[in-house]
Amino acid sequence: MTDEDVGLTPDPIAQERAEEYIRAAISYRLKAQAKATPIQAVEIPVADESISILDVPADVLDGIAAELRRIASLPARL
Predict the structure, then answer these.
(1) Residue 15, exposed/middle/buried by CB under 10 A (0-12, 13-18, 19+)?
(2) What is the pLDDT of residues 44-75, one digit of tens each?
(3) Most exposed: 2, 23, 41, 56, by fewest CB within 10 Å?
(4) Cα torsion for 10, 11, 14, 18, to the nearest 10°?
(5) How far apart are the first and last CA of the chain?
């Protein structure tokens, strides 16, 4: 959501600060949940041809890929 989305004058600095705040809040909640809840990994085999992603903007796909790489790089917990 941007300033323009809600009818305000664009303010790039405020927009950047808001995005940083949201990222920090999400990160904090994820870390708090990780500490409170044990993580159990489950592998579910899925045939490649059964997955299709249609009409998804490239930036969304890039974000998903970045998050998957981040998760894959986390140390395993037993």
Answers:
(1) middle
(2) 787 777 666 677 788 888 888 888 888 888 87
(3) 41
(4) 20
(5) 39
Residue by residue, DSSP assigns 8-46 as PPP-HHHHHHHHHHHHHHHHHHHHHHHHHS---------
Query: What's the pTM value of the predicted model, to 2 decimals?
Result: 0.39
Tokens at residue 30, please? Answer: 């994820």
CA distance 16 to 22: 10
Class of residue 18 by CB neighbours under 10 A (exposed 0-12, middle 13-18, buried 19+): middle
